[in-house]
Structures are given as structure tokens and as C-alpha cells.
Amino acid sequence: MPTALWIAHVKVTDEEAYGQYAARATDAIAAHGGVFLARGGTHEQLEGPNRPRNVVARFPSLNAAHDCYHSDAYQEALSYAKGAAERELCIVEEIE
């Protein structure tokens, strides 16, 4: 079964609230087997809107990534991000 990536592009507008989101989201992601590959490091924007915070997490499967996003724990974490950031998030299945 192929692994899957969460790829998020974020512009934080409220550091305090987003910090609350990040702390809670970290636990929810780990609970679903997610591990961070990139988390806000140096980047070079080549196309599209610049989002200074870029995050990539690997999950054991597309289903695990999907279940994490829709879990109660992640949705509770996400409530802190709403209004605290401009963001895009997608799940991409990796090539085997």
C-alpha cells in the first residue's frame, strides 16, 4: 500500500492561535502514524501565492491521512487555525 503526503501551504496571521493549532495537530497527526518531513523551513516560492510556512507530513496510507484530517482530535485542532491563517492543504498518494 503506498504512503501518502499531507502538503500544506500556510500564511499565519495570528501566531498565538496558530501555535495552539500546531501543538494539537502534532498529536493528532502522530496518532494516525504521520511523521513530519518538512515544517516551516527555508523555501523558494516558484509559482502561486507565497505561503511562508510549508509543511509536509507522511502517513502510512491515503486512508490514514484522510482519517486523520476528519478525526475529532484534528478537527478540534483545526478550530484554532480558522481565522488565524490563510492555508491550503492536500493529500497526495506517493508513488510505490
Automatic annotation (TrEMBL):
Signal peptide: none annotated. Gene3D superfamilies: 3.30.70.100. Residues 3-94 form the DUF1330 domain. Pfam families: DUF1330. This is DUF1330 domain-containing protein. It comes from Histidinibacterium aquaticum. The lineage of its organism: Bacteria, Pseudomonadati, Pseudomonadota, Alphaproteobacteria, Rhodobacterales.
